[in-house]
Structure prediction request, 1011 residues.
Amino acid sequence: MKNNEGHVVGVNGNMVTVEFQGSIAKNEVGYIVVGDTHLKGEVIKIRGNLADMQVFEMTNGVAVGDRVEFAGEMLSVELGPGLLTQIYDGLQNPLPDLAEKCGFFLQRGIYLDPIPNRDWEFTPVVAVGDKVRPGDTLGTVEEGVFTHRIMVPFGFDAVPWTVKKIVTKGVYNVRAEIAVLSDPKGREEKCTMVFSWPVKKPIKLYKERLRPDETLITKVRIIDTFLPIAKGGTYCIPGPFGAGKTVLQHMTSRNADVDIVIIAACGERAGEVVETLKEFPELIDPKTGKTLMERTIIICNTSSMPVAARESSVYTAVTMGEYYRQMGLNVLLLADSTSRWAQAMREMSGRLEEIPGEEAFPAYLESVIAAFYERAGKVRLNDGSVASVTIGGTVSPAGGNFEEPVTQATLKVVGAFHGLSRERSDARKYPAIHPLDSWSKYPGIIDSERVEKARAILFRGNEINQMMKVVGEEGTSVDDYVIYQKSELLDSAFLQQNSFDPVDSAVLPDRQRHVFDLMYKVLTSDFVLEDKKGARKFFNEMRQKFLDWNGVVTDDPRFAETEDAIEQLLVSKVRQEAR
Amino acid sequence: MQKVYTKIESIIGDVITVRAEGVRYQDLAMVGSSYANVIKLDGNLVSLQVFAGAKGISTTDQVRFLGVPMKVSYSENLLGRVFTGSGRPMDGGPELDENMIEIGGPSVNPAKRIIPRNMIRTGIPMIDVFNTLVESQKLPIFSVSGEPYNQLLARIAMQAEVDLIVLGGMGLKYDDYLFFRDTLENSGAMGRTIMFIHTASDPTVECTLVPDMALAVAERFAIDGKKVLVLLTDMTNFADSMKEMAITMDQVPSNRGYPGDLYSQLASRYEKAVDFEGAGSLTILGVTTMPGDDVTHPVPDNTGYITEGQYYLKNGRIEPFGSLSRLKQNVNKDTRDDHRALMDGMIKLYAAYKDSFEKKSMGFMMTEWDKKLLKYGRLFEEKLMALTVNISLEDALDLGWKILADCFEPNETGLKSSLIMERWPNKKPEVR
Prediction:
């Protein structure tokens, strides 16, 4: 079948206008032929026989009259075993392979096979004559620690297919034929371990969507107890530059209790990706005993790489997430930063001369952001197993002002909001998530009643602190001062966490609960403290003990000792006839 | 294939349009005696931006397409030379046209990057000790008009241990250009310097070319094994020139008139900073003046999201608060064992001094501790913060200990006892 062709009639930055014959589809992929290189692009607008394409490469040297070949398919990614541990650009080009081929620089127009060409040991689970539907498992391969399901391609018609042929257990190349299926009309299709799927179409091969009600443990105290995220949920981290968005995402990518982590570095610094690239192959995942890299895919379209590919990179990432979800796994997608993705849309919208919305973002910004986050979810698959995709996106608001369109559009659709504050990061209070402004709709690891009470103390403490700035310490009552000290204690010894400390940097939920129990006791106790000086001394001592406690592993005898010491200190000042 | 067209359809700002065939996007052309490059193709209507500005261009002037993109000469002959934004000599020397390389080339494959690991010594304690500059870092100086940011750049250029300096000046006052030239000549650093200069009176288009020219040359030297430091001043002028061009082209502005791709444009320049494994490196030190001292202005704001920290130059000093080198952790663990601890300790005490100072100016009583802090703050500002101070990292650390010993008892510093045992000066030297 001959695909359509066309030729260039206009170039404006990375947008190229093409005159075409015949029919083409929106979001269809086309290649501009410049000399002997092919530049990939995507059709984003069609008017009469003119199509506007966003080109994923630099457009230098494109001339009017250059030939354009349309591929006849939407922008797609290849799915199959071998995706894990890979580092791709926004178009699923494997970067290390590209480096081997082209050296230091990203040469345009070179597209390599995304799925490594290698053999896998395939174990069939269906037999000839079985009926299967798209998404059903044909067999499995062992990909690292995971059982990777080789499924009926998702793009096949949703009818019962009959297995005509299936290979026996054995070692096969990833692109070798492993099965032949036929539809009710007798049309036969061959299957390999690899198939492709258009990135902008959600994969919906599941029985039902479930409510995200299971906490996703991040081992960050302020998140797990106060501002939890859920498996299958969504959350966002807006914050000004230097507030620690990327560090927080980095910590989460290491510690999150999920099967697979997909990192979409979208329009951010290349240096930050490099840290992940070099560190993850060295770090051991305590859950599997293998390196962290074995559960990770990195999609990396950094700030200096072509803008249009930045737009597609988040879709590439979420599509891979959905693919692994279809295997019954829990996937976490971390997108850093969604603002850059929105800016990429803004750039294209400007070139298309669309009527601009707020801050020149396109009017469809909100619906596009909503549609993206809606691809997260906890689902019951057709085989009954439960799996999820969780999406966490950072937002980089201009000037650190959360009133801007991207932050606001994101807040409407996410289930948790972790707002980072410049004030807290300047004061070196990390993680700099603002405990009062932020919120979460998901259940945490501690009952909400106690969390609410602790939060109330934090809130009241903040009020008192504001007041103290005006009237001074002298003008504050001892009772108020004690509440203020309690809130400070909760903040410094529980909400803040030292990411450089080997023990404190990642805290298991059991320990979090244990520490919170004692902290809660301190917060709700009625103390006999005559004056502010005494109160300050008492809480300083308390804080020091809690901080020491945070730095000791649980099976160290000092853990119990410090706990005793805190209890004793508590009892020494608590009002006896309390309540 | 050099075709000549003599019918210019429109002239708006510095952008002209002409009907022509077979022209490639970003190709170079001659319009009259000036270079121009293709910035838009629409059917046979070609838009070009004229480097020397469109003033005086007539509708019948010749437009000659050269069939090549913008290039810059690359050779050892560049050393010690000064060029304009379009690559023409500005120092009366000969034109260079051998070994032409393209500007604005592709970005480095992230998979080929390495974690930065080498410190660049500058002799400025506020940088070396507190916010170390690292090879391959991209770091702007955030400042306000009137601050001595160019003096600071020139000092770093003269003292930094690098093989080569490429200076990109955008919207420079002519005096500032002369200042750079004279300072570098007098210090003998001119022989390892290349300058691309756009002064405030030069055409706007050339301003937008300066970073690309400077970085293209620097990148090639880095690939050839040189340790290159690129100084870009002032990137706000660069952004303003882009804004001017964008508005001329009827682009929809996004924020305060700046084009929507400001972030991508700045990033594609700053991201050129890199350490080539097995070859040289490229470090970028820029200046971003903040209009109205407003860090949320689009230019400093977008820059902050791109760069690896920033130096705040305020009142003639690099402020320890707000200044940040995101890469300092990579190197300050290997300098001297007391570097990190002393850095943190001294900054914490300086923060405490600020509080005491504020209390004092509000007329509160000064305690014994406050007085110690006030003395410490004064010494810290005089001996370490002043830009005139020029000492090595090791001397600066030693001086730090002396200042501490002069003001405090060891246990008041919050430093680890083991370090104090080792480093605390025995006799109190007189530091004043």
